[in-house]
UniProtKB/TrEMBL annotation:
<dbReference type="GO" id="GO:0003700">
    <property type="term" value="F:DNA-binding transcription factor activity"/>
</dbReference>
<protein>
    <submittedName>
        <fullName>Transcriptional regulator</fullName>
    </submittedName>
</protein>
<feature type="domain" description="HTH deoR-type">
    <location>
        <begin position="8"/>
        <end position="53"/>
    </location>
</feature>
<keyword id="KW-0804">Transcription</keyword>
<dbReference type="InterPro" id="IPR001034">
    <property type="entry name" value="DeoR_HTH"/>
</dbReference>
<dbReference type="InterPro" id="IPR036388">
    <property type="entry name" value="WH-like_DNA-bd_sf"/>
</dbReference>
<dbReference type="InterPro" id="IPR036390">
    <property type="entry name" value="WH_DNA-bd_sf"/>
</dbReference>
<keyword id="KW-0805">Transcription regulation</keyword>
<dbReference type="Pfam" id="PF08220">
    <property type="entry name" value="HTH_DeoR"/>
</dbReference>
Amino acid sequence: MTITGPKKELLDLTKHQGQITIDDAVEKMDLAKTTVREHFTQLEKDEYIERSYERSGRGRPSLRFQLTKKGNGLYPSYEPEMMREFIRYLQTEGEHRILEVFFQKFWDRRYEKLKLMLEEENVKSEKDKARVTRQMLDEEGFMAEYGHDQDSGKLMMKECNCPFREIIKVTKLPCKLEKEFYQRVFGKEVERTSYIADGDFACTYCID
């Protein structure tokens, strides 16, 4: 979604100041207060900004707005490039073991989180295990789905988003460990049938 016009100007002002009040925005933008309030309301609804209250002395606390994580995401960031460069540096320095431990711990933490979720719901069936796994992966940004293959009836786990999209340009280690994660969860052999890194729209795993 591209944001332009007064809404973009409001976001820029908020970014520059860290926090901003409606009165500050009115003064700097030369817009009617009702118009500024409407823009703030829409930006808050779209989760680009959030409100907070600051008390200064007696009286009612002051309403202020600040950018959310989604709002900050509208601005340039070199984090993906820095991460790729850091991984390349470790590889050229022969520090492959550091990468392995880092990503292994990443998936270990997700596995332990999932185990707790499964225990809390007293999950027994494979279908319920897939449902809770999808829920956990959704919370981690994978946009996961699950279902069964029409021909074989085998369980299929599908991830429509890859949080490692930039990282796997320099190492496929997270993908290898992701497959092993599914093997640990379901206790079965797992085959990857589609792969975002190969240009597919999703990563799909067939649980044998």
